[in-house]
Amino acid sequence: MSPGPTPVPNFALAAMADSVRYHRGPAFSEIMSRCRELLPPLFGTKQEVLIFSGSGTLAMEGAISNFFNPGEEVIAVNSGKFGARWADQARVYGLKVHEIYVERGKTVDLAEIEKLMSPNIRGLLIHASETSTGARHDVKGASEIAHRQPNCLVAVDAVTALAVYSVPTDEWGIDIIVGGSQKGFMLPPGLSFGSCSPRAWEKAQSVKNVRYYMDWRKERKAAEKNTGAFTSPVTLIGGLRSVLEYFNKVGVDSIYQKNWKLCFASRAALKKMGATLLVENDIHVSPACTAFMIDEKFNAKAFPSIYSMTLAGGQDELKGKIVRVGHLGYMDAWDVLNQLIAIGRLFEKAGRKIDFGAVVETYMAIVESEEDFTPADLK
Q1: What is the pTM assigned to this prediction?
Q2: Domain 10-249: which topology?
Q3: What SS3 class is residue 160?
Q4: Angle at Cα 256 formed by Cα 254 and Cα 259, nearest 5°?
């Protein structure tokens, strides 16, 4: 029940078992063609969505190496483990990074981006959803600021945003967006995705970084032939097609609404237990996960042995200080409620009195509500 990898549905497992195809053969080309058809609407773009063999970090690195030259200046929003990682990747490729450190659990103040923005800035690196904290940034607002400078590309890590909530790439002016398979896409780790605006592709032609395996131009050329530039992970892509068909059948809006309901239901239930939430303001939450504070009395290590569940803790400076409740991907209301009840039991063992009846009632009132819980800025 972590924020990723998330549970993989049986239909995706079956598709992966059935999809060991020759990566240059017509059967696999048919699978790739269907994925190419279904991915762009999910990304909210008319551009090609590339499929890479590697985790989201690979796509993040490719977003640096393919679109920025050494010595160029970028702004990087560091609001957690993955914001820090992207800033580090940019430095490895010789970029001059203007880093905005954001208190964990908070979202970036757009005024801080505006303050650093100048004609010298060539890129803004920002996360739609910071997995390590459960915070969501105002990507649309940040993009509007960045595009006041004609040469600034907006790069967005949407690993725990794509297929979790609506991220309309073209509408928000995102130039480079990356995602991963093991979160909202309900697949095992191993695939990542990338899509770029025409202006980003134009910039890529003048980038001097040496690149071979992660040359997005090669992948784009191969994708046009319904194949990959190298040996594709055919089983995972077979699973991807089955998940995209599922999204197409049930409608992604219903999935997004489910995720928002589970997010706010989890927040309400945890508050009922007396927990302190890391992301305090409802406006700033991501529907990927909810983080709450713990102390040394909360025995998180007992979670898998007693309750047979996986509990995600904090990372870096938050290690041992928070627990993250995942509510994205192939999870329903009962899956999340089970982990919340187990969390309540651990709070009881730590000496806190929990009214489980009130907790369940609070949680189910939101789950069963007809209200639209999508935040106003995303409607």
Answers
A1: 0.95
A2: Aspartate Aminotransferase; domain 2 (3.40.640)
A3: coil
A4: 110
Q: Could you tell me the fold of the domain covering 252-370?
A: Aspartate Aminotransferase, domain 1 (3.90.1150)
Positions of E strands within 275-350: 289-293, 312-313, 322-326
For residues 131 and 278, give the distance between their C-alpha atoms in angstroms, rounded to a whole number.
Answer: 12
Q: What is the spatial distance between Cα 50 and Cα 289, in angstroms, rounded to a whole number?
A: 26
The three-state secondary structure class of 345 is helix
For the cut 70, the answer to whether the pLDDT of residue 152 exceeds it is yes
At residue 11, φ and ψ (nearest 5 deg) are -65, -30
The 10s digit of each residue's pLDDT in 266-301 is 999 999 999 999 999 999 999 999 999 999 889 888
Could you give the angle at the alpha carbon of 211 between the alpha carbons of 172 and 28, nearest 5°?
Answer: 75
pLDDT tens digits along 172-191: 999 999 999 999 999 999 99
Measured CA to CA, the distance from residue 294 to residue 278 in angstroms comes to 10
What span, in angstroms and rounded, lies between the C-alpha atoms of 233 and 242? 15
- Model pLDDT, residue 1: 64
Could you tell me which of 114, 92, 134, 167 has the C-alpha nearest to residue 4?
134
Give the domain ranges of the chain: 10-249, 252-370
* Structure tokens given for 47: 């551009």
How far apart CA 60 and CA 228 sit, in angstroms, is 19
Phi, psi of 340 (to 5 degrees): -65, -40
What DSSP assignment string belongs to 281-292?
-GGGB-TTEEEE
Please give the full DSSP string across 96-142, using - where no structure is assigned.
EEEEEE--TT----HHHHHHH--TTEEEEEEESEETTTTEE--HHHH
- Kind of pairing, strands 49-53 and 191-196? antiparallel
